[in-house]
Amino acid sequence: MSRTSTRKVVVTGIGPVTPVGIGVEPFWDALVSGRSGVGKLEGFGTEGLASRIAAQVHDFRVDDHIEPVVSRRMERFAQLAVAAAQLAVADAALDLDESDRSRVGVVIGTGIGGVGAFERETSVLLDRGPGRISPHLVGMMIPNMAAGQVAMRLNVTGPNECTVTACAASGHAIARAVDWIRAGRTDVVLAGGAESAITPLTVAGFCNTRALSTRNQDPEAASRPFDIGRDGFVIGEGSTVLVLEDERVARARGARIYAEVAGYGLSADAHHETAPHPEGAGGAQAMRMALDDAGLAPEAVGYINAHGTSTSLGDIAETIAIRSVFGSCTDELAVSSTKSMTGHLLGAAGATEAAATVLAIARGTLPPTINLDDPDPACDLDHIRNRAREARVEAAITNSFGFGGQNASLAIVARA
Prior knowledge:
Elements: E1 9-18, E2 21-22, H1 24-33, E3 38-40, E4 53-55, H2 68-71, H3 76-91, E5 104-109, H4 115-128, H5 137-141, H6 145-154, E6 160-161, H7 169-182, E7 188-195, H8 200-208, E8 238-246, H9 247-252, E9 259-268, H10 281-294, E10 303-305, H11 312-326, E11 334-336, H12 339-342, H13 349-363, E12 365-366, E13 382-383, E14 389-390, E15 395-402, E16 406-413
Parallel strand pairs: 5-6, 5-7, 10-11, 10-15, 11-13
Antiparallel strand pairs: 1-2, 1-8, 1-9, 3-4, 7-8, 9-16, 12-14, 15-16
Helix pairs in contact: 3-6, 7-13, 10-11
């Protein structure tokens, strides 16, 4: 895959709604300060669950973003997406009344969608019968409704899609948006991910796959990618939406440009339902494709925001993949995992980490991996341990690898 379009895709707005902060400045300040968003799981009883911790968005007030008569018909993941999209549009200073709304697209990825509504209404069905099921169930449950609600709330009528590829979902969403803009189908795309799947059923399912950390007595230290003491990921929730624009359109309206999404790579492990390829083959393929699409040599990349979930197999496989792609340049390459602070936002992870990567390039500071006290010798990279690092990088990679072996890598470069 190599790019043939002359259209460049730039990031002009960022809308994070995350466990470490809502809005660009709170989000970025938390990351560079190394603050964890992980705490005791709240919202339902945790008796019988091996993992009783989570990264939740505690300070989200839906009425600040959506009128109550509408929000009551929306599941939380869609509410978070609408808020993130509104924040991104405001951050981009994008006046939709001055835009051709038919050329503004939306693509929001999610791994699980409205599982909370499914669980609640299943209980209603079993306890009270089918006649008591909410008429809003389907509209709250289906994964594409985050993208649909964003379009309805902002009244934009361009292409509208949902990517559902587990933890790679919003990486795939951004790649899809890049395609639309390069092809001239859209001028602007609101691209990102949304997830709110911290529910009894979902947490129990992840617990029983032994995927989650059980460091219940020390929540803030539980997510520790690449550390020898890691014992699983911390489930999180949130949404991040980016405003992506055709560079010519952005410059014509005088937009502030954070960075360019210069390339992407997509691949499949074709290996296992939940475990990564042990040699990181799929991840390596995605990174090579992203470099090729962006026209970047490996030595041009200065930073990787790793998928880095804090799982035993995943962190090693990603390390192997990075070394296989970057070879002799690897030791000069700074690496961190912001999941150490945000937890794993599942389908929203890719866009949240893309936002962190864009800000790292734009602001000349690389966020750390916190809790990296005793690096695993099998993860022998130049980790940004525990404290942010001042560094100007011109190009970076951010990785998203999902259950099912579906991988997405994005190449992001600085723009003057």
